[in-house]
Amino acid sequence: MQNRKHTHNTSAKNIPVRVALAAFGMSGRVFHAPLITSHPDFELTKVLERSGSRHAMDAYPGVESVGSLGDVLSDPAIDLVVINTPEHTHYDMAKKALETGKHVVVEKAFTVTSREARHLIAVAAKRRLVLSVFQNSRFHGDFRTIRQILKDKLLGRVVECEIHYDRYRPGIQASSWKEKSLPGTGTLYNLGVHMIDQALVLFGWPQALFCDLGIQRSRGKVPDYFELTLYYEGLRVILKSSYLVKTPGPRYILHGTKGSFVKYGTDPQEAMLKAGVRPGASDWGSEPKECWGQLETEIEGMTSKRKVATIRGSYMDYYDNIRKVLRGKATLLVRPEEAMRNIEIIEAALKSNRTRRVVQLDKVRHD
After folding, report:
1. Do residue 29 and residue 42 come from a single domain?
2. Residues 198 and 163 in one domain
3. Residues near 304 by beta carbon (within 8 Å), at least 6 away in sequence
């Protein structure tokens, strides 16, 4: 179902998609609200702020701040609901939104369990509604660059890929739900889902995996470290994350039969959004030359070593695709089935850590 083109009552070019945000925390303030309000075909209409604050109205005059999800879902003018709340609330809120006929974008990680994800997919299919997950790291410039390098076969047959998503946060933010032992908390759901999604996009469904998960920070209550190895025929993909990395190493390391690619640094879009830069700025998503990755490869028997210009990243492409899907002019770039597979990998990783064993994966269902 999710591969089909969808039609929508806002198909006319002059009618915007009216959007409601389910929260105005970090993801709402930094990511979704700026992206939605920067797109000419979207209109941010309502924001759910349970605390009673009116920060959204202060930031975006004309936007209505409401106190309950019911206030959002009972409004027939709302076309799309963005569920950007803590992971353990995603399933229930997305299900209610779909059941009231709203199209839904869910913040990553999609759901806590793959069973929940599968049910949401079924509800959306039955009601012919758009359901997608904000896997925004697909729209990072460095990831787009790696996809192009692999498409051009500049590394030959890839034998190893290592992806890091590290931070230095030695302190515990006791007031943050992310630091509490709740379903869906911990770095595997928070950061790991980005890396898992990228690995599956690049290399497909693995044969098996092994995961080591732990708590490194003093007084930590949720996992803040993991090393996850995905096993493919002739290829190993290593995903690593820690909150205690003061001096970061490369973000991506790829080795193949013809050469290697090493990339430091992070995509600039999040920092730009936090600094108040809006999408559409002339330098949006662009990296300076000193941040470009290093490619060393063999071309016709000669060794070539050079910097590779980072393709511009663009989070706006995600919402632009959602709008085109609603107009019936495109298929989803991030299908919910793909986001569900990320959760299946997380479930298998948790099992591997618990049993201290390699977990074999069902490859037939995902071929």
Report:
1. yes
2. yes
3. 259, 295, 296, 297, 298
